[in-house]
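Design a sequence for this backbone.
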């Protein structure tokens, strides 16, 4: 019976390595974001003389959006791997971000929520900048903008709620 228990525990412990292919998939997506960002920058340089200031700002916001998502991917990949799979072994010249090893699962969730709020903010700003001008007979808010604001506010409230719950739930653990 002890052998079966040991085998079961070893299998459960080793199952964490099933996460590794998921992290590799996220790395592949990060590569795609890099390719797309370079493509967008090259395109912007090609059209810069004929583009309006608004279109330039929208393009820059799109690049910032991609950077925020890419940062989010890196944070999730590195911190989740170290938290759930194995400690990252950095030796010699290999750099290790200073924040790595200091982030737990709750912190990852809060940082994820904050990044989603930032990304939502950019999308909302882009929607306002590209909204058609209002005529006197049209309502100030169109249905699309209204729902974008509602969704954004939902993200904001959710992020704040997670931060408050984290602070309340883990306040005792952090004070020791």
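Sequence:
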């Amino acid at each position: 019976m002890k052998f079966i228990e040991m085998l079961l525990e070893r299998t459960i412990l080793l199952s964490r390595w099933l996460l590794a292919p998921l992290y590799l998939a996220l790395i592949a997506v990060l590569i795609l974001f890099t390719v797309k960002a370079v493509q967008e920058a090259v395109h912007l340089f090609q059209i810069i003389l004929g583009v309006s200031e608004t279109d330039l700002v929208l393009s820059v916001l799109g690049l910032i959006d991609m950077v925020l998502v890419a940062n989010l991917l890196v944070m999730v990949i590195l911190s989740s791997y170290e938290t759930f799979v194995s400690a990252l072994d950095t030796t010699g010249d290999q750099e290790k971000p200073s924040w790595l090893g200091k982030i737990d699962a709750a912190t990852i969730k809060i940082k994820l929520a904050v990044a989603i709020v930032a990304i939502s903010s950019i999308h909302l700003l882009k929607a306002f900048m590209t909204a058609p001008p209002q005529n006197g007979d049209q309502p100030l808010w169109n249905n699309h903008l209204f729902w974008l604001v509602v969704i954004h506010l939902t993200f904001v409230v959710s992020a704040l709620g997670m931060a408050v719950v984290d602070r309340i739930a883990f306040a005792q653990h952090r004070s020791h």
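The chain has one domain: 19-175.
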